[in-house]
Predict the 3D structure of the following.
Amino acid sequence: MQDKHEAHRSYGLQTAGSRGIAGTKRYAMVIDLRKCIGCRSCMVACKAEFGIPLGVWRTWVKEGDKGSYPNTRRIFMPRLCNHCDYPVCVRNCPTQATFKHKDGFVLQRYNRCIGCRTCMVACPYNARHLIPAKRTDKNLPTMVVDKCTFCIHRVKKGLVPSCVQACVGGARIFGDMNDPNSEVSKLASKETLTVLKPELGTSPSVSYIGGDWELMDEPHSYTNRSTQLKDEFNDFKRNHKGDAFGDIVEGEPTMPQVIANMNGFLHTIPHKAKGVFDSFVNFFFK
Amino acid sequence: MEESVITYNVFHHVAWGTSISVYFWLVGVSTGSFIISSLGWVFGIERYKSIALTASITAVVILLLVPSLLIWDLGQPLRFLYLLLPSYWHATGPMSWGSTFIFFYSIAIIVYSYFVIVNNPFWAKMIGIISVVLAILLELYTGVVMQLNPGRFLNNTALTPFLFLTGAFISGIGVLILVLWIQNMLVAIKVEWTLIEEMAKYMMFGLVFDLFLLFLDFMQTLYGDHGQVIGHEVVLMGVFRFPYLWLEIIIGLLIPFFILVSPLKKFKAGILLAALLVAVGVYGMRVWWVMGGQYLQTFY
């Protein structure tokens, strides 16, 4: 239980944190890493549930190798939005596009989002992404920020999120942390739970059992990449420029890349201008 | 100790890229240039009135480039209007404040320039005071918008506002010196070179203060938490070594400093070179600040 002062701490115009407050719900996920086998069915289920485009993810599974032969182990860590009690993204959003639901969900309103990506810069967990401009279904939003919703549409019908439903090892457990009879609450009382970046004071709703610090620590994750992963990362940045044009390939001169990035950004302007023009035409003449 | 290797992860793009770094630099140059403009009409230093109009017009012209960068950087360019609508405005969002400041600052400096042109001291001073406050707030915002992200090791420092204000001040003077030199060559109205020398002296004081702030930042990153230490090693002295060490510290601060304390300052070319290097060097800071600050996390 949190003390009264912390429980009522609130950022901006959004709902205060509800963890540990009687009479409120606090939906949370516990991920038991002892049971995770790295099958990535959660990633597939999430992609299928929401039609997530290629190249972006609401949930993913990070993977590492631990130890040296013959004492080795493969470790996994599923990642998703932490639905923080005190979300930095909500605090920093300039248009109130992202907000915190009273039951703990951190949600995104596409119609308010201007695609400024402030929330992506603010999120310490990399849990947000900009939806690419091209989608198969033209009715779905593009070029606005998207994120995990904890499958609120399913939870409100008494179901669990699709990633939890799909988890073959039963590693993902979902429920109301404020309900003492829920499975997550029981796990929280008997197991040692860890969260990502607790020092930031975000109070995440996603916690882990048996987390390895090597996977949880951000700088360590960077410095201890395998050579292959480092090459893949550089290929990704070299060949898949994001909409912000800020990727720098490690080991190559920085400033020519900065100039090339600016050039790439300038080349997007005519396409965006055409989109703006089309909107005007649609609004006034059709 | 048991070693571990990360073998798979999904990758993420940097959320803010080159256009934002250029935007931060342009805002800095505009506000820095405007503050020099205000020395005459707002702070009453008579000899600066001769350059007030050039400085304020420089500030306006440079600021005109900003909206084009910002609006086209948005995923939904037309929705930039949301930033100014009261029902969307979010008091805890730094960008809400920033967009408000930039809106009113751009209007204020245009109005100020008008009163300078028509030679109306009272209104030039009144609007000038408002513009100076807005200029300082706007420049603070560009730093603070990235500072207030606790997950960004390199940006989350209380030195940020001072780093940005100092950078704006010196880069503004740098660009203004170059503009005044061009004006002296092209237009009949000449600016006394002694005034430019005096501005160069202010720029030198700014350089020293900027170096001091960077030293403090260096100490913090070197003795900071894991993220700051790795950020220093991998980002500042690694991938972003050129914009950080070479462009900002050596080319942008140390070389101009030595020019301005050496006999070279007596030559026009010396001062002009120092001004150019400072302006370029501050852009190096904007590059590592924006893109370097996000670099590590793109892998996490």
Remarks:
- Chain A is about 35% helix and 15% strand.
- Chain A has two domains: 4-223, 227-285.
- Residues 1-12 of chain A have pLDDT under 50 and may be disordered.
